[in-house]
Amino acid sequence: MELFKVGGQIPDTNYLFLGDFVDRGFYSVETFLLLLALKVRYPDRMMLIRGNHESRQITQVYGFYDECLRKYGSAAVWKACTEVFDYLSLSAVIDGKAFCVHGGLSPSIQTLDQIRVIDRKQEVPHDGPMCDLLWSDPEDSSVGWGMSPRGAGYLFGADVVKTFCDTNGVDLICRAHQLVMEGYKWHFNDTVLTVWSAPNYCYRSVKEPLSVHTLHFSVHLDIFYR
């Protein structure tokens, strides 16, 4: 709720969330259901992108599954939520210039049209382009593609970003996926931006207040729906 106080209330403000709505504390159920309710009420103002934690396998390890069992006595709510996960968008483009995704780029994807044809209505695969979009990370010291220590996705360097941006006519890649204590971090001469908007992630305080790294976009959001 603090984010809406700082950034502005819906429907006066457009919001695009970059995934990982669950496994981030004791109130994942309430957080995700609130976002869904706002999406239903204001579908053109609330945009939700899938993160790597919007996954059946991951949520059984990192807390969301156990939270649902504890609060509801069965896995029914968890199952319902994971079915919704399969329908979340994989990426978005803001005003034709900012490419938004949870994780990063993929060696299997050169154009935005290749993302549009991905069958996203499934559990997150262990590899492949859909997996990469949710799991990959920029690496400031890398050139080209590298193996990710996460065991999924890739590390990618500034040259990969430049090629992708030039090919698709975008100026910025905006993503989440990595904890940055300052709330946001620029990479590769301000062509990639990592945003972290959880101010008390796992009850460890992020240094900067929400107002410092809340991004305001007053432009049309072009969501990739299949």
UniProtKB/TrEMBL annotation:
Superkingdom classification of source: Eukaryota
One MF annotation (Gene Ontology) recorded for this entry: protein serine/threonine phosphatase activity
Cofactor section: Mn(2+)
Entry similarity comment: Belongs to the PPP phosphatase family.
This protein's name: Serine/threonine-protein phosphatase
Reactions the enzyme catalyzes: O-phospho-L-threonyl-[protein] + H2O = L-threonyl-[protein] + phosphate
Enzyme class: hydrolase
UniProt KW keywords: Hydrolase, Manganese, Metal-binding
Residues covered by the Serine/threonine specific protein phosphatases domain: 49-54
EC number: 3.1.3.16
Organism for this UniProt entry: Strongylus vulgaris
